[in-house]
Amino acid sequence: MTSVQYVAAKFIEKAAQDLVATIRAMPEEKALWQPEPSARTALDQLVECSLANIMWANILRAKVHAVLPEGVAERCYDSLDTVDKAVERLLASAEALSETIRALEPAELREVIAIPGKPEEGRPVAECCFHPYWNMVYHQGQIAYLQTLYGDRDEHCDAGPFG
Questions:
Q1: What's the confidence (pLDDT) of residue 87?
Q2: What's this model's pTM, rounded to 2 decimal places?
Q3: Are 8 and 129 in contact (CB under 8 A)?
Q4: What is the DSSP letter of 113?
């Protein structure tokens, strides 16, 4: 039988690869483009996914929901200022997260992690393993939408976890 850890780790790795394929299909200047002033760039979204992967790896290890230490996000947004740098960090964060998930013992999957602001509505570790996957797929869709706004209507990955 395939374990939750195996499936979650594989989905996370695949989502990262698809996200990379999507942003690599963009000209560098379009990765920094905003269709309107309050819109987030594709590069910003890629950096966010890296940060979320790191955050969730920490949460899954500690079994406590906590944001990254102050200043970490700001430093990442400042230093990951090209697609190449952000891609490298995304892939490394996805790999580290996948390793963390694969290392979970079956009994740990039933443990509940309290959610800030709603501690009575915690989530089992097994569910938490899939949040970073959902986050990367969501942002891949956001980046694909940005691509359509400048006229790119092509599919840039093999579309889905089983590709």
A1: 98
A2: 0.93
A3: yes
A4: E
